[in-house]
Structure formats: structure tokens, C-alpha cells
Amino acid sequence: MLRPAKEQVKHLSPDNIAQRSGAIFHERDGVLELQSLNQTVRIAVPEYTFSPRLEEWHQLVILHYLALADGTAVSTQVITFGGLKDGLIRGTKFDHDMEKELQRFLKGKTPDCIRKICKALGAEFADSNADLCAVFHFLPNYPVWLKIWFADEEFEASGKLYLSRSADHYLSMEDAVTVGEVLLSKLKIQEQEHVNLT
Questions:
Q1: For the segment 57-111, what is each residue's pLDDT rounded down to a tens digit?
Q2: Whole-number pLDDT of residue 153
Q3: Cβ atoms of residues 97 and 81 within 8 Å
Q4: pTM of the prediction?
Q5: Which end of the chain is more exposed for a tag (fewer CB within 10 A), N or C?
Q6: Residue 55, Cβ density class (10 Å: 0-12 exposed, 13-18 middle, ≥19 buried)
Q7: pLDDT at 1
Q8: What are phi and psi of 105, to 5 degrees?
Q9: What pLDDT is recorded for position 192?
Q10: Dihedral through CA 113, CA 187, CA 32, CA 143, nearest 10?
Q11: SS3 per-residue string spanning the chain
Q12: What is the mean predicted confidence (pLDDT) over 37-47?
């Protein structure tokens, strides 16, 4: 799975990749460096090996991002996954499934607990029409917004994931879904760590 993705980027100039993706190329060390969810990721070229070693899906998305990035400015306008170029079926289904997953994830958590979990993944908080809006820097030009509405007497807590309108310039529909899944799994890992600390 990773081999074809590595082959795809091996033909590209690391300098060019860095310019288009927002990564930094350290020519002397032969390393591309970027931030992903509060983590500095170093990728040795031309082998395209990762340090630290990330889960395969996370590596795959980063490799696709490096290959596809075209340097388009990041739009602050948000869209659902269904709003992506090829998102009508796959993206709309993912939006629906993710709402259910987030409802389960948010159940019984205090706003303070949710903030701490998001902050551990490097989220910044933004003003929005939701009770809480966390912006995750999944990749340099690929932010993900998590909007949360806290529980009240009538409704359970709910959440929705959004992408930038410029997302199609950096990843395919399938990769966008993987980004959402990786982010959710990281939130759950942080949740466990938070539980273990309390």
C-alpha cells in the first residue's frame, strides 16, 4: 500500500514538494519536515521513511498529500465532506457516520475535558456558530474543523467535522475520509490518556 505512494513522490523534487505542500526541506540532511496534529514528522528522502513511525494510514495520507499538493492558498471557508468535489455519495455517508461516532465520543464528557483532549492534538479554538470549534492542523495546508454543540436538557452533545474549501487541492475524497478516521482515532487515544491521568 505504501510502496506505490512512495514511488509517486520519488519522481518529484523535494524542493518543489516543500513549496507546494508547506513542508520544509532540509537539503543537508535530505529530510522533509512537517507538522501533523501537534507532532513534528521528518521524512527521509529519497526513501520516504518516517520518523517517528506513524500508523500506515497516516503515512499514506501524508505521502498522497506531498504528491497532490499544488500550493493553493488555504481557504477559511468550511465545507462538509459531502461538499468535496467527489463527495456527494462517499462524503455525505461519511458525514452521517461521523456524526454518530462523535455523538458516542462526546457522551458524558464535560466541555473542559473535550477542550483538553483537543488541545493535546494541537487544536486551536475559533469563534463559530457552535459551542466549541476546534481547528486541527492535520497537515500544513489541510486544517480540519471540529464543531461541537454541548448537551442540554433537550439534546445530547453532537459534533461535526468540516474541511477547508481548498481541501480538494491537497487530497482525494478517499484520503479526506482517512483524515477524518485518523483524527477520530487520535481523539479516542487522547481520551484514554486523559482518563488514565484523572
A1: 999 999 999 999 999 999 999 999 999 999 999 999 999 999 999 999 999 999 9
A2: 87
A3: no
A4: 0.95
A5: C
A6: exposed
A7: 85
A8: -65, -40
A9: 85
A10: -80
A11: CHHHHHHHHHCCCHHHHHHHHCCEEECCCCEEEEEECCEEEEEECCCCEEECCCCHHHHHHHHHHHHHCCCCCCCCCEECHHHCCCCCCHHHHHHHHHHHHHHHHHCCCCHHHHHHHHHHCCCEECCCCCCEEEEEEEECCEEEEEEEECCCCCCCCEEEEEEECCHHHCCCHHHHHHHHHHHHHHHHHHHHHHHHHC
A12: 96
Q: For residue 37, which amino acid is it?
A: L
Alpha carbon distance 6, 165 (integer Å):
27
Distance CA 125, CA 112 (A): 13
Burial level of 56, CB count in 10 A (0-12/13-18/19+)? exposed
Question: What span, in angstroms and rounded, lies between the C-alpha atoms of 144 and 117?
Answer: 15
Judged against a pLDDT cut of 80, whether residue 11 lies above it is answered with yes
Q: How confident is the model at residue 42 (pLDDT cuts 50, 70, 90)?
A: very high
Bridge-based pairing state of the strands 124-125 and 132-139: antiparallel
And the C-alpha cell for 125?
479554538
